[in-house]
Specification:
Elements lengths: L6 H13 L5 E3 L7 H11 L8 E3 L6 H14 L5 E3 L6 H11 L8 E3 L7 H10 L8 E3 L7 H12 L10 E6 L4 E6 L2
Parallel strand pairs: 1-2, 2-3, 3-4, 4-5
Antiparallel strand pairs: 6-7
Helix pairs in contact: 1-2, 2-3, 3-4, 4-5, 5-6
């Protein structure tokens, strides 16, 4: 059985839940949420008294704009420590928004970005933003696009102990046939 709500109903339900200000965890996966549906959540995250800590929005359709709304609001005042926006087709543009705002999300500890069709250049920007002051304990990137630069960045981050291997779901290896480094899954 599948339930489909139009955007106005989703916004109404979300608004009602959020404004009660007792909500600590919100899981809305496989709900076909769009970027427009992220606006009331983002507005709530900007509030000083927001109690929302875990936000699981995997397998929706928020796209790059939805990622922008969420990460921007989290960077200015959100208390979210877990954000899962896997399988939301945020693409490279959304990945760039993540790279821009993730280091400012002071409370964010776990970020899941699996299978979002994020290009290698945007993934590299996200990884390089970890060098900045960031409290991420786990970053999930598997299922996106990587290149040899991605592998080299991961290698440098791990060797410098900026991140530990247990904090990433990808790693690197040297491929003799390519004569270069490449990204491999780490589970």
């Amino acid at each position: 059985m599948s339930l489909s709500l139009d955007t106005e109903k989703v916004i109404s339900v979300l608004g009602s839940l959020l404004m009660q200000n007792g909500l600590e965890e919100l899981t809305m996966e496989f709900c076909e949420l769009t970027a427009q549906d992220m606006e009331p959540i983002a507005e709530y995250l900007n509030r000083q008294k927001s109690k929302l800590r875990r936000l699981r929005l995997a397998c929706n359709k928020i796209g790059s704009d939805g990622a922008f709304f969420l990460l921007r609001s989290m960077s200015t005042g959100g208390q979210v420590d877990l954000l899962d926006i896997s399988q939301n087709a945020i693409g490279s543009h959304g990945g760039e928004w993540v790279a821009k705002y993730v280091s400012s999300c002071r409370m964010l500890h776990k970020l899941y970005l699996n299978n979002n069709n994020i290009g290698a250049d945007a993934i590299n920007k996200i990884l390089l933003s970890i060098k900045k002051r960031c409290k991420l304990e786990f970053l999930s990137l598997y299922g996106n696009h990587f290149n040899s630069c991605t592998a080299i960045i991961i290698r440098r981050l791990l060797n410098a102990e900026v991140v530990l291997q247990s904090e990433l779901d990808i790693s690197y290896t040297y491929d003799e046939s390519l004569q270069d480094y490449r990204v491999v899954p780490w589970r």
